[in-house]
Every structure is written in structure tokens, then in C-alpha cells.
UniProtKB/TrEMBL annotation:
Superkingdom classification of source: Eukaryota
Coiled-coil stretches: none
Enoyl reductase (ER) domain: residues covered: 16-341
Annotated keywords: Oxidoreductase
One Pfam family recorded for the sequence: ADH_N_2
Organism per entry: Xanthoceras sorbifolium
Protein name: Enoyl reductase (ER) domain-containing protein
């Protein structure tokens, strides 16, 4: 038996903001069989994660491409690998059987041929929607948890600021920090998102950064006594304003710099005298370095979900052909919460 496999690829390297015309859908015939003894499996993709970091993989150069395997460059014309959930349809690997649900690195396509060595495991949905595996119980949730608890190391009552706070990582950082006992303010790109943060997710306050003309003054308004912790998802001017409002011995965790991903000209020029005299600690991190926290993260998040203490924000589109627009939308702030594309019904 054979199937038609459609998958997304890029025509050429892309430096700057991606456009739909930079992508194409390739169509290939995929025989549903594997050679015995190869340990290869074929997965029918169900949900795929849409993540900003993919933009660094399609540039002609980015330091991300040599950092870790997950963020290696994507060669034009080849399939993108991405985190997701699927169902095994053919298995040449004794660890997997036809019908098993799996989570790990699949492709932005209908099917994935998974060779040995690729990070993929059987998926236990724990009675929760399968899509949660891609967001709150996947790398977004783990990133929020690791960044907050392993890097920021908050103390109860500390004042925290989160940028891109209605996004997949940001909303969870804010929710974990509130549950822990911090005072949390978030920035986001629309008044509708501001209302969501305050009314549904329990942030102490939030503002629309697109309506602010002087970010240093804005942060002074929300934190008259200064900020203990900044969870940075955006970089650039927000990072400069934030460092200017930091308390002595404050911590900045740099999760991402999305506003610089597509425009290096926006690179932050923070006042390094502030960094020295306020003894500010600034640390970047990559979640895959912290997999030892996975079980702890999973148990705590599962407990919060069962207790109804944490809200799940998902933004799900469907079909392979809509992956490029879903991806491009991340850089326009189209998404609210975790952006996912459902490829097929469970
Ligand atoms: P996301 O926040 O769900 O989506 C991106 C959001 O960023 C958009 O919704 C938009 O929201 C905001 N944004 C886009 N362009 C912007 C700009 N120029 N200025 C300010 N805000 C802008 O994405 P995510 O999956 O949760 O990831 C958040 C960040 O964490 C990403 O940049 C990602 O690369 C990073 N990340 C890092 C690690 C790690 O290991 N360090 C792991 C996972 C993710 P609004 O404009 O409406 O606020």
C-alpha cells in the first residue's frame, strides 16, 4: 500500500520576516512499508507544533544552527522536523506497534518516516486532550517551568515581568509564577490579550506594548519600586527598558528575542552600567539542556491541571497547507497561546 505525503519546505534560505511565498508544499508517494531490521517506523502525523525558533533554522546563518541538533539549519527543499504527536502506521522497531500514539520529532507534513535515533516516545495522554502534548505538556510548558524555576529561581512575593505574555511560553510562565506566589505583570500586543491575561489567567496586571511610546516610563508605572525578575521573550527596546527598571540583584532570563529574530537591526543596547552597579544577572538557556526536570514538570503541571488551577491556551488551525500561514502569524502576534496545526483526526 502507498499514500500521498504532502510536506512543507522552503524554496531558499530566508533572512528577515518570512512570507507565504517563501514556502511550498511538496507531494511525494510514500510506500507504507519498512525494511525488516532497520528499526524505522512510519507515523501518521496528527498535531504539529508551530514555533518561532524555526525562523532561525531557515536563515542563511544563525548561531542557533550549530547549538543543538533540534535547531540545526533546514536545507531548502527538505522537510521540516518539528515537535508533534502522531500514530504509528508501520513499525520495523520492536519498541513500537501499529496504532501506538507517539510524541517527539515528526515533520510538518502528513506522514513522517522516523529513523532510529530521532527523539520519539510512546505517548500517554493521561486522559487529557492529545494536543496538550504539543503545548502545555510539551516544550512550551517545559520551557516556562525550567526558565522560571531553574533559571529565575523566584522567591515568594518577588515582582516579575513577562514579555509576549499571551504566547505559549509566556502565559504559562505567568501562571506558574502566580501559583508560586509572585506578583506578575505581562506585556502583549492587543487589548483583547491584555484582558485575557488579567481576567482569565490571573496576572496582577498587563499592558499593550503597541500603545506605549516610552517603555522605560511604562515599566516604571507598573513597577514603581523596580523589577526582581524579567522573563524576556522579545529582546530589543523592551529589554533595554526592563534593565533600566531592574532592582539591585535582579535577574533577567533570556528565553528568546523574537523581535530580533526577523530584524537584527533591532538588537538591544542595554545600559551596561546598570548591569554592573545593580549587579544584574542575565542568563540565556536552552530547554533541552534541562530534560532532567521533565518528570518534576510533568507531575506538577498534571496536578495543577487536575486541580483546575491552570488554564490551557491553545490556538489550533488545521491541515498541512495552513502551516506556513500559522508560522508567519507568530511574527504578527496572530496567535493566542500555543499555535498548533492539526494534520489529521485522531
Ligand atoms: P508565542 O509567544 O506563542 O508566539 C510568539 C508571540 O510573540 C506572538 O504571539 C506575539 O505576541 C509576540 N511577538 C511576535 N513578534 C513580536 C515583536 N516583534 N515584538 C514583540 N512581541 C512579538 O511563541 P512561543 O512558542 O511561546 O515562544 C516564545 C519564545 O520563546 C519564542 O521566541 C521561542 O523561540 C522561545 N523559546 C525558547 C526556548 C528556549 O529553549 N530558550 C524554548 C521554547 C521557546 P504579541 O505581540 O501579541 O505579544
Amino acid at each position: 500500500m502507498e499514500v500521498t505525503n504532502r510536506y512543507i519546505t522552503i524554496k531558499t534560505s530566508i533572512d528577515g520576516a518570512p512570507k507565504e511565498s517563501d514556502f511550498e508544499i511538496k507531494v511525494a508517494v510514500l510506500p507504507l512499508k519498512v525494511e525488516p531490521g532497520t528499526n524505522t517506523i512510519i507515523v501518521k502525523n496528527l498535531y504539529v507544533s508551530i514555533d518561532p525558533y524555526q525562523v532561525n533554522r531557515i536563515k542563511s546563518f544563525s548561531s542557533s544552527q550549530t547549538a543543538i541538533n533540534f535547531t540545526a539549519g533546514v536545507t531548502p527543499g527538505t522537510a521540516f522536523d518539528a515537535y508533534g504527536v502522531g500514530k504509528v502506521v508501520v513499525s520495523g522497531n520492536p519498541e513500537f506497534e501499529e496504532g501506538d500514539l507517539v510524541v517527539g520529532f515528526i515533520t510538518w507534513g502528513d506522514y513522517t518516516v522516523v529513523e532510529p535515533g530521532v527523539m520519539l516516545r510512546k505517548c500517554d495522554s493521561m486522559g487529557l486532550p492529545l494536543s496538550y502534548q504539543v503545548g502545555i505538556l510539551g516544550f512550551s510548558g517545559l520551557t516556562a517551568y525550567v526558565g522560571l524555576f531553574d533559571i529565575c529561581k523566584p522567591k515568594k512575593g518577588e515582582k516579575m515581568f513577562v514579555s509576549a505574555a499571551s504566547g505559549s511560553v509566556g502565559n504559562l510562565v505567568g501562571q506558574y509564577a502566580k501559583l508560586f506566589g509572585c506578583y506578575v505583570v505581562g506585556s502583549t500586543g492587543s487589548n483583547k490579550k491584555v484582558a485575557l491575561l488579567k481576567e482569565k489567567l490571573g496576572f496582577d496586571d498587563a499592558f499593550n506594548y503597541k500603545e506605549e511610546t516610552d517603555l522605560k516610563a511604562t515599566l516604571k508605572r507598573y513597577f514603581p519600586d523596580g523589577i526582581d525578575i524579567y522573563f524576556d521573550n522579545v529582546g530589543a527596546k523592551m529589554q533595554e527598558a526592563e534593565v533600566a527598571n531592574m532592582k539591585t540583584f535582579g535577574r533577567v532570563v533570556v528565553c528568546s528575542l523574537i523581535s530580533e529574530y526577523t530584524d537584527a537591526g533591532k538588537r538591544a543596547a542595554m545600559d551596561m552600567l546598570d548591569v554592573v552597579y545593580k549587579r544584574i544577572k542575565i542568563q540565556g538557556f536552552l530547554t533541552p539542556d534541562h530534560m532532567s526536570m521533565y518528570q518534576d514538570f510533568l507531575q506538577k503541571t498534571y496536578d495543577h491541571l487536575h486541580a483546575g488551577e491552570i488554564q490551557v491556551l491553545e490556538d489550533i488551525s488545521s491541515r498541512v497547507e495552513n502551516i506556513p500561514s500559522a508560522f508567519i502569524g507568530l511574527f504578527r502576534g496572530d496567535n493566542i497561546g500555543k499555535k498548533i496545526v492539526q494534520i489529521a483526526e485522531e
